[in-house]
Design a protein that fits this description.
Blueprint (H helix, E strand, L loop, with lengths): L10 H14 L3 H29 L4 H18 L1
């Protein structure tokens, strides 16, 4: 079952989304939904990996925080 979500994006993001949707012969909504699902999967995976490493004592809290910050930046810039 699907649900409706309304978001605000800047015009350049909307234009890029339209371009991708047109090239893929999909709706803007489909592309945005797929991108959001992929982002959520990556974030969940990352959070799980960090939690497991932190719980096992593999990384110190400071190392975990630094790793999370670095990977979060990577995700944010991955587009």
């Amino acid at each position: 079952m699907s649900a409706t979500l309304t978001i605000r994006i800047d015009e350049s993001t909307k234009a890029a989304l339209d371009e991708i949707a047109q090239g893929a012969h999909r709706s803007r909504s489909y592309i945005a939904g797929a991108a959001l699902e992929a982002y959520i999967r990556r974030r969940k995976w990352l959070q799980d990996k960090i939690a497991n490493a932190d719980a096992s004592g593999v990384l110190s809290e400071l190392e975990t925080d630094a790793l999370f910050a670095e990977l979060e930046q990577e995700i944010d810039h991955a587009g």
